[in-house]
Amino acid sequence: MNILLTIFFFIACLICNGQETTKITRNIKGAAYLVEDYYVLQSDKTIRHGAYNKLRITNGSLIESGFYKMGLRDSLWRRFNSVGNALNSTGSYRDGEKIGIWKYYGSNGIIEQVYNYSTNELISNTIVEPVDSNKLYRVFSGNDTLFTKLEKAPMCIGGLNNQINSNINYPSDAREKGKTGKVIISFIIDKSGKTRDHRVLKGIGYGCDEEALRIATEYLSYWSPGILNAKPIDIEYILPITFKIEVFK
Q1: Quick one: 145 and 165 in the same domain?
Q2: Is residue 70 very low, low, confident or very high in pLDDT (cuts 50, 70, 90)?
Q3: Residues spanned by the domain of 74
Q4: What is residue 144's predicted lDDT score, i.e. its pLDDT?
Q5: Which of 141, 234, 151, 156 shows the shortest CA–CA distance to 188?
Q6: Helix 208-219 and helix 160-167, axial crossing angle in degrees, nearest 10
Q7: pLDDT tens track for 110-166
């Protein structure tokens, strides 16, 4: 493992393409038990450029690793669960967009889903999530809006519950004050499966609203689109994200 990490950081240095960079190490806002280190351009410290790592302070476990190239995610990225003891997903970015084959893992470390982002093809899938066949969706068609059932509900690539449970950070302020509850958010899933227009419909505060939006925008951004009349369509998706008090060791 140490040899692999050495190679990992060596490649990161090459990716910097001769740019002068500075390393930043900081606690993640709202999640004091997490720290991230990354590189920024000396000429513009708002632009990330080089290796990136997110770690859990309590045990030093790796939560996420990858590279930035001129402010955008690039090359190989790996994501582990919130404890850092099992792989959650692995795949590559180019210019901030996922490309090629991505693999998603269950809590037992076994691959549950393989998706090709370059061809928008689901290669394999063992994730089964409950679907309410009677659920009404807000559908957008041109200038018209209607509420209707779908022939096929949208499916989150990587597994909706898996991506939420594996990537959510319980805000420090909420944990300290014992705040629990559901944040209701909404966003549009367009006919290509991309998401946009994320917003909080009902919040509970203490950093939970911001964390719910972060999860939706960062980890629930790729979907198999909803189908109506045998065609993919734009829909509004309403999602509750539950915050429960957990003990992080």
Answers
A1: yes
A2: very high
A3: 1-126
A4: 84
A5: 234
A6: 130
A7: 999 999 999 989 999 999 888 888 899 999 987 889 999 999 999 999 999 988 988
Residue with tokens 């809006």: 145
Collect all residues with Cβ–Cβ distance below 8 Å to 142 and sequence separation of at least 6: none
* SS3 assignment, position 182: strand
Note the pLDDT tens digit of each residue in 162-174.
889 888 888 888 8
Same domain, 133 and 199: yes
Tokens standing for 189? 């899933």
| Tokens coding 132 | 């309410």
And the tokens for 173? 């302020």
- State both tokens at 22: 């500075």
Q: What six digits make up the tokens of 100?
A: 């090629």
Burial 42-58 (b: 16+ CB within 10 A, else e): eeeeebbbbbbbbbbee
User: E-strand spans in 42-169?
Assistant: 48-56, 62-69, 72-80, 87-94, 97-105, 111-116, 121-125, 137-141, 144-148, 155-156
The CATH number of residue 190's host domain is 3.30.1150.10
Both 111 and 149 in a single domain? Answer: no
- Model confidence at 236, in pLDDT bands (50, 70, 90)? very high
DSSP secondary structure letter of residue 242: E
Q: Which residue shows structure tokens 């319980």?
A: 170
Q: Which of 99, 126, 153 is the last residue of a domain?
A: 126
Tokens 């960062």 belong to which residue?
Answer: 218
Whether residues 114 and 131 share a domain: the answer is no
